[in-house]
Amino acid sequence: MEFRNTGGTPARLGTITFATHIIGALGVDWATIRSSQPLPAPIAAGATRSQTYTVCLESWRVPLGMRVETQDVSAVWE
Hints:
It is built from no helices and five strands.
């Protein structure tokens, strides 16, 4: 993911939250599992940083025939 600080001061701390959906064989959304990780900080004013994240779920949460999709991502800078 790419993060761009469009503000006038450095972004020093933040959290990214992923909402991973467990989807059944017929397309039914059975559950949403949220996980959070720190954002790549600091990011200077006007700068851009890239970061790769791995989202994991326990195998028992995804029965045979189901799939996972990370559909929602939100970031909060402090």
